[in-house]
């Protein structure tokens, strides 16, 4: 995918179909639970199967509607200093992750996701990586390598490399010591010299 800075982007269209399919099949678990309860009460396999089929159709339909709506709420944004995300149908969630907190970006692709040609990017940060947990996931990315390259380049150097990834950002000069960093080094050097003078005076008095 072509990554553009300060331009929101959404998951691949195939992610919607993936969500609908996975959500629908995920309804099998509560369906079997309700069917088992009916079978235990009525002691009849036919009634349990009929209830199971009805519940599955109802839950699969509701799950498919939710997945369809959920896809329309997911969006991501890369800026020169941080990445933001938002999603949620009933309960809206948004977040901001500065690049200086990111420690690693992993690409995750399961067998079903491979069929749909999509992957997830798992973003690990300093506060989460110790437990091998992801603070956020960029879901439904059809070409994850360029996106990961842009994010990791921000993490390493503070500006992306647009030549390979297609990121639409202005080139920045090679990083060097900032003026603030130089001032801090100079102040530290002065303090060390003063400490040296004090230690020399103490040594002279002890002799």
UniProtKB/TrEMBL annotation:
Residues 73-149 form the YdbS-like PH domain. Pfam families: bPH_2. The chain crosses the membrane at residues 18-41, 48-71. It comes from Methanogenium marinum. This is PH domain-containing protein. The keyword Metal-binding does not apply. Keywords: Membrane, Transmembrane, Transmembrane helix.
């Amino acid at each position: 995918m072509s990554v553009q800075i300060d331009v929101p982007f959404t998951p691949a269209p195939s992610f919607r179909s993936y969500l609908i399919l996975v959500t629908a099949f995920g309804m099998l678990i509560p369906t079997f639970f309700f069917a088992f309860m009916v079978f235990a009460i009525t002691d009849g396999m036919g009634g349990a199967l009929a209830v199971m089929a009805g519940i599955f159709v109802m839950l699969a339909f509701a799950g498919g509607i939710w997945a369809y709506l959920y896809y329309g709420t997911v969006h991501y944004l890369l800026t020169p200093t941080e990445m933001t995300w938002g999603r949620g149908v009933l309960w809206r969630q948004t977040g901001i992750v500065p690049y200086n907190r990111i420690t690693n970006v992993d690409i995750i692709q399961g067998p079903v996701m491979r069929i749909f040609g999509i992957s997830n990017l798992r973003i690990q940060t300093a506060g989460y990586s110790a437990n091998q947990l992801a603070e956020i996931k960029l879901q439904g990315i059809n070409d994850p390598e360029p996106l990961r390259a842009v994010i990791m380049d921000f993490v390493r150097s503070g500006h992306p490399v647009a030549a390979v990834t297609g990121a639409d950002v202005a080139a920045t000069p090679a990083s060097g010591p900032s003026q603030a960093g130089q001032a801090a080094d100079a102040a530290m050097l002065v303090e060390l010299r003063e400490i040296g003078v004090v230690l020399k005076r103490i040594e002279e008095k002890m002799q």
